[in-house]
Amino acid sequence: xxxxxxxxxxxxxxxxxxxxxxxxxxxxxxxxxxxxxxxxxxxxxxxxxxxxxxxxxxxxxxxxxxxxxxxxxxxxxxxxxxxxxxxxxxxxxxxxxxxxxxxxxxxxxxxxxxxxxxxxxxxxxxxxxxxxxxxxxxxxxxxxxxxxxxxxxxxxxxxxxxxxxxxxxxxxxxxxxxxxxxxxxxxxxxxxxxxxxxxxxxxxxxxxxxxxxxxxxxxxxxxxxxxxxxxxxxxxxxxxxxxxxxxxxxxxxxxxxxxxxxxxxxxxxxxxxxxxxxxxxxxxxxxxxxxxxxxxxxxxxxxxxxxxxxxxxxxxxxxxxxxxxxxxxxxxxxxxxxxxxxxxxxxxxxxxxxxxxxxxxxxxxxxx
Amino acid sequence: xxxxxxxxxxxxxxxxxxxxxxxxxxxxxxxxxxxxxxxxxxxxxxxxxxxxxxxxxxxxxxxxxxxxxxxxxxxxxxxxxxxxxxxxxxxxxxxxxxxxxxxxxxxxxxxxxxxxxxxxxxxxxxxxxxxxxxxxxxxxxxxxxxxxxxxxxxxxxxxxxxxxxxxxxxxxxxxxxxxxxxxxxxxxxxxxxxxxxxxxxxxxxxxxxxxxxxxxxxxxxxxxxxxxxxxxxxxxxxxxxxxxxxxxxxxxxxxxxxxxxxxxxxxxxxxxxxxxxxxxxxxxxxxxxxxxxxxxxxxxxxxxxxxxxxxxxxxxxxxxxxxxxxxxxxxxxxxxxxxxxxxxxxxxxxxxxxxxxxxxxxxxxxxxxxxxxxxxxxxxxxxxxxxxxxxxxx
Lengths: 368, 394
Fold this sequence. Notes:
heterodimer, A: alpha/beta, six-stranded antiparallel β-sheet, five-stranded parallel β-sheet, 11 helices, B: alpha/beta, eleven-stranded mixed β-sheet, 10 helices
């Protein structure tokens, strides 16, 4: 399946300022995407509020807008380009972190995508929602035979208290649609619960928190997976957190590849990861899926997924030499994994799973 | 790490037939071991690899950076059949590799199912290992120079280089090696179907892995695992619906008896499915040649194209030989038309054959996985379909 001929102009939504959820990793991925698209002869427009990024250097896009990354401004960009005779065919929002993804959802809700006849490439709105909405995602995982931590979605403090009386403490509190774990936390006491759940409800744009069974101390893993338009799917990299569940991945020492899985466990994880990718319906591109395993009895649960290139993707790309963002951009415009050359060997295709003879260790640096 | 406190590691030496020497520390049993040096790139599943009979007389080099992390899962039995509650991760009753070469040995396992450690199990089974080897340099050398004979010498077996080299060069090479008799089952054993039984199959044991009867069982098939010395009349007397040719070690060019048996099965139009060595046997029965690859395919990340669907499967490989057949044409054989149904994306090697006029197909890779991905598991259902079609038309 060669490159699509119906896409001549792509708007890339960039990464914005360097904060959690919009980190410099997304400048890396977005820059790769812009470069790939232009190499393919596609006109690239770019919106990014942060001029201190590589991708906003003039040579990376045909038109660069240093504007706030909001649906309102993206709509202005679409209108401006159309007015100049360059209507945008597609928006690529899966390489700019959570901000870009949220902007894509907002664009859809405002009817902007339909109004301008613009297609969302990579992951479409239903796929983003299946991946991002915690309850919908849990249902997806269960539908393909996976296990998830026991939990309940709550919209009020009364619901939170009722849930905890059932699950027992400690519990995890996860607000919906927030970035970088904002408002998330572990409540060990009733006092913690009141404070964290209250903050979480306030932090969530939809006033929703998930109260979840504690998997504190379980082994924590991530898979970086990719899928193309012909439904070929591969695991690019596995990552194991040396710090177990309960320590945020950003604060954890992480190791690629995963080092303490038997083949049975790893293949079960791989089967689940690829089934989730397909069931969520990410048409093309990369995803990050997180798992926990109880070290006492091997129970494996799926924690969450990012239906987009994530911060871990940058680590996985560097760790394996498999350029996830670059390949995600090529997949988004129609190429398949077997049509793209492996960046390392040049002679074999990108449809493979990197085998490492080394470990890559990420150690966080704390600004104490 | 067979050493007490303060004594330091027991030295071990890996000697290649071309005179290259890699020094490291002994683990598992100490002594000497000889075989063909081959490398595998799998990052999980060393236990399945070590217990795979296809590695008979091979010294396996793991490119994975650290080995032993998941210990050894002996489970509640040798894992033949549908498996007990806590099944073993063994793919057969014993470790088959001649020796094991690794970079770094994990000091302790992290796996709730582990019953012992890797070095303890290797020592119990008398398997010699060497750790601390620069496995990347070794692998690059084997990729350039090709798979070759080698020896591991540790403890008292370590001697002067010329003497060790002489012992290595005295070993028979893998090309021309007939190893089937060394790994095949002495008698017939049966693995029942899971749930309702749809078909029964004779699986010719050329070095079969436990997961094959397990997956056949999961597809409603009762499997009689039979010795490689079986005759076609004996197979017919079992009243089976199909025949399976297993994986296994050695040079397919030496397996004339199995090739003749396969021809007799094709003559009788009994549905046939082969894996790995079984693919090479079907290839030879159809009149194709087989040849030794320079350094083989061993790993669990190999992309293979299903020519029927165009899809790419990530598959487990363990083969040093391959079938020589043209990739993109229908070929006339003594058993009607045949075609290459699978090929490797990396190097275009034939990875599967399909007969168009007799009910037979085979793959060079391992749909039974263990270790490896499950992308090709659907081929067991395809074998069921072949037997179902045969029953309808018969």
